[in-house]
Amino acid sequence: MAIMRYAEALNAALREEMERDPTVFVFGEDIATYGGVFKVTAGLAEAFGDRVRDTPISEQALTAMAVTAAMTGTKPVLEIMYADFMPLTLDALINQASIYNYIWDGQVTMPFVLRTQGGGGVGTGAQHAKSLDSLVAHIPGIKVVAPVTPADAKGLLLAAIRDPHPVVVLEHKLLYNTRGEVPDDQGPVEIGRARTVHEGSDVSIFATSRMVLEAEKAADALAGDGISAEVIDLRTLRPLDLGAITASVAKTNHAVVVNEDWGFCGYAAELSATIMDHAFDDLDAPVERVAALDMPIPYSQPLEEVVIPNADRIAAAARRALA
Amino acid sequence: MPANRPTLDERLEMHRRMLVTRRIEERLGEMHKAGQTRGPIHRCDGQEAVGVGATAALEQRDYVTTTHRGHAVYIGKGLDPRRVVAEIFGRETGYGAGRAGHMLVADASRGMIGGNAIVGGSIPAATGMALSIQILREERVAMAVFGDGAAQTGICHESMNMAGLWKLPVIFLLEHNEYGLTVHHTAQSAVPELHVRAAGYGMPGVQVDGNDAVAVFQAVADARARALRGEGPTLIEARTYRVEGFSTSDMGGYQRQEDIDRWKARDPLLVSRAVLGEEADAARIAAVEKDAEETVAAAFEAALSDPLPEFAPHAPSAPYANAGGGC
């Protein structure tokens, strides 16, 4: 068991998979010589030559190229530097990647991974701080994972590379330097399985990405009030682990959903509706939603802190659910 | 005789495939008028020499991706006319089992992957296939067929820049039919000759007569050889003309009759037959033409009596995981 940084765990997954499978290649902006702006790809170019490529600033074409490279014998892992640039990739995701396996009756598979990172918290401003989870999770045919721990970062990236279908890996800029235990034999983590962070009996908090850490802080605060909160890290945004969600709601009868994307038409709205669709009879109160405020992400710290969800807002939502 | 000169047998086969395509287009036009087709059909008649001539210069293992107007490319790449027609009529026996429709036909076993109904979509698609070929160090090429309308998209620039930069084994075949939707190319491009743009991407740009299948074949054969030598991409501008409307739903009225007449006088089938007539005897040409007619008649008869598909869910698209099922 090693203690690793989240970025190191991702790097280990890429390195292992490139060693194991010569069809895996990695490309994107600043990723080869510089090793990636968050150092996830550090050292790979030295080890793997032209299977690790710096690219021009051409997100739209790069994503479309990954789609067809993945249909013709390679396993591309494309890094899109910020989730805010994902709108440039959307034609490739919506009109290309997500459709071919279905419309061509299984003639092609597409082991394509798009890695990107989102989220606020460090003053990167309105074009470098968004979470656009709902944009990609909306698309049938695209899987979306969002690891929080270093172990899951490695395990979910391994699973994504080995998956025969397109997978978007949503990382978070505030997680790259977090540390955690990663088993020496950490293998793929099954896509579509939630993780119970800790069990509770009064209210279920379903969280994604860095919001899991805020949910844990909220659970600690709630414990001080005598409230037992169950925190569940969804890990996979699509496909969703419906069984884990309904089982937890059946136990606590109260649900809070937390996601850093915007609230209106956002991922938290989908979670909320899903719980209502599948666990309504187990609810003693309406589902509480916590999400970013519906406005551009501001630069200045006191402004940004209001817009991005945090532990206080999550704890308040739990108290409302129990009121 | 240079290596890129098609043999007489190859030219007879190109003639046959162009005629197969023509008869499919004509039949679809008639059936659309009779209300027997679904959605718009984008006919490529008058442009067969580009799709058929270009694909004839490729090997089966080479990849091709084309436009929403791709019937000539499908037939040229050797797809079964019956299964192409079956896909157009939404049948179980179609290349996509009726899920794709006429703009998105693919036969991966023949490298035809596939039609693309997003204008410009084929350009990065072939570039990505070429990147895969380069990474795997394979002996094959990828070809993008796209129109003058697609040449105005931003993704065209991005793709050609990377193809030139990395010397990818890709052929950019620009099928210049003078129209993007219903708007003439002079209202869409700052330059009338689009092959000149190749200079900006460090690749050769050549222009050919797009109504002469042999000329298209030769340009593609040269570009293929260049790509296989590791010298990178080529931009080929094949000049042709869209004699029909944008699609079967196009009401027309914006094309000059004198232009249509001028181009119809240089119909790819007339050009092909005139050249063939100098070398092949009339009976051989007649036999090839009879075969094409019979092939298309049989394709429609079989396809129209093929079963319609039954709906089934698509597991990789499903929103919820099957616990333990690996999804």
UniProtKB/TrEMBL annotation, chain A:
SUPFAM superfamilies assigned to the protein according to its UniProt record, in alphabetical order: Thiamin diphosphate-binding fold (THDP-binding) (SSF52518), TK C-terminal domain-like (SSF52922)
Chain ranges passing through the membrane: none
Protein name (record): Alpha-ketoacid dehydrogenase subunit beta
Species in which this protein is naturally found: Futiania mangrovi
Keyword check for NAD: no
Keywords annotated in UniProt: Oxidoreductase, Thiamine pyrophosphate
Molecular function, one GO term: oxidoreductase activity
NCBIfam families for this protein: PRK09212.1
Coiled coil: none
Cofactor list: thiamine diphosphate
Keyword Aminoacyl-tRNA synthetase: no
Matching CDD domains: TPP_PYR_E1-PDHc-beta_like (cd07036)
Domain Transketolase-like pyrimidine-binding: 4-178
Organism ancestry: Bacteria, Pseudomonadati, Pseudomonadota, Alphaproteobacteria, Futianiales
InterPro entries: THDP-binding, Transketo_C/PFOR_II, Transketolase-like_Pyr-bd, Transketolase_C
TrEMBL record, chain B:
Catalytic activity: N(6)-[(R)-lipoyl]-L-lysyl-[protein] + pyruvate + H(+) = N(6)-[(R)-S(8)-acetyldihydrolipoyl]-L-lysyl-[protein] + CO2
Entry cofactors: thiamine diphosphate
Domain of life of the source: Bacteria
InterPro entries associated with the record: DH_E1, PDH_E1_Alpha_Subunit, THDP-binding
One MF term in the entry's GO annotations: pyruvate dehydrogenase (acetyl-transferring) activity
Keyword Oxidoreductase: yes
Role noted for this protein: The pyruvate dehydrogenase complex catalyzes the overall conversion of pyruvate to acetyl-CoA and CO(2). It contains multiple copies of three enzymatic components: pyruvate dehydrogenase (E1), dihydrolipoamide acetyltransferase (E2) and lipoamide dehydrogenase (E3).
Protein name: Thiamine pyrophosphate-dependent dehydrogenase E1 component subunit alpha
